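Entry for s-citryldethia Coenzyme A complex. Fields follow.
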Amino acid sequence: MSEIAEVKINGQTYELPIITGSEDEKGIDITKLRSLSGAVTLDSGYKNTGSTKSAVTYLDGENGILRYRGYSIEELAEKASFIEVAYLLINGELPTKSQLSEFEANITKHTLIHEDMKRFYEAYPSKAHPMGIVASLLCSLSTFYPDSQNPNRTEEEIELTIYRLLAKLPTISAWAYKNFVGHPVVYPKNNLNYEENFLNMMFSLPAEKYKIDPVVADALNKLLILHADHEQNCSASTVRIVGSSHANLYSSISAGVIALWGPLHGGANQAVIEMLETIYEDGTPLENWIAKAKDKNDPFRLMGFGHRVYKNFDPRAKIIKKAADDVLEKLGIQDPLIEIAKELEQVALNDEYFKARNLYPNVDFYSGIIYKALGIPTEMFTVMFALGRLPGWIAQWKEMIENKEPIGRPRQIYVGANERSYVPLDER
Ligand code: SDX
């Protein structure tokens, strides 16, 4: 006998089924609430509302647990490659050796972007923010592959689009960086793996071949894995709702990139470094900044702190913090910002305001330290987040399409003017 929830409205009691997830999460299924009672629910920011049933990622905010298809983020970050994790998220299982090499081969052969797309870069201002270029070019890919616009795509056509996205996003991103620094673009090399190819396209110069440092490639692999998915976050929900109208996959992913850009979401990694640099240059005690972060009249927020779901340490932040120490040590880099970040973390974690609100460092708090150490400029940090998140967005979109979910169209509670008649202009 399934559990039920009872809702009493105007003296009438309505029974609603309770569904239980595979980790014993409970959800009140309100599918029939409006038809039964005429009432809808209201939940600004969807803080208490589940939008779907998903098998992709599980996270437990209270206990700081994050798993992709049941595998812990700690194990995957330590033992897997990013492409392996991409396969896992999109297909639901870890690949066999032959499945992985076929997956990699299919991605490798699509890394080029059409030469006509190079003209797009020439049209952007030299310091165009790479996120603006990446979002536009991802959507534009749908015009180069018009078959992808067909809402009745075959499985093979969807698979080809997925390969093209995974293959071309590194090229589009690296070329957006080259546009930002005013350097000539570097073409993909099929003899390099995913991370090496991206690093080579980012940092090779006509006069100087880029020497791939395994420490850098390994750190990038780990960072991409840690960003690969995070259930129904703002950008994944955007990908789902845009995809639910049967807009093509390129456009749905482009919408996800745009949602990620916001400083409250993926844009926080750029905002964290800019905050740390401001604090470093300012030189006033950290307590002053903590006071600003607590002051409701001050727009300053401790970027990289707090999370909608994690009311404990973000497990990714723990791994990235350790990786940051390792990378800086291995590369022999002294970065004063990491010391400021660690001190800021300690001051915040011992402050009543932060403790009372369960505000801990999130994935964005330390990631910028590593990107900076890898030679990646601040304006590219959120592009790095998008590179990592791409397989997660694809997995979420694919699950939504395969489950034939309806177009997303929330209701509302109207609080505007009641009916009134038009007043002629000269009588107002
Ligand atoms: C990501 O959802 C995901 O999974 C996202 C993500 C992913 O992988 O996809 O994990 C990636 O987006 C991480 C978050 C990156 N954003 C930031 O670091 C920006 C700084 N953080 C905040 O803006 C905030 O914590 C959010 C946006 C992350 C969460 O906001 P919520 O859940 O809407 O919580 P809230 O804003 O209502 O905050 C609750 C309280 C408020 O105070 P009171 O009204 O209770 O007095 O905490 C305060 C907030 O003012 N607060 C902060 C704070 N974050 C929350 N105060 C100071 N500094 C902060 N950073």
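NOTE: The longest helix spans residues 155-181.
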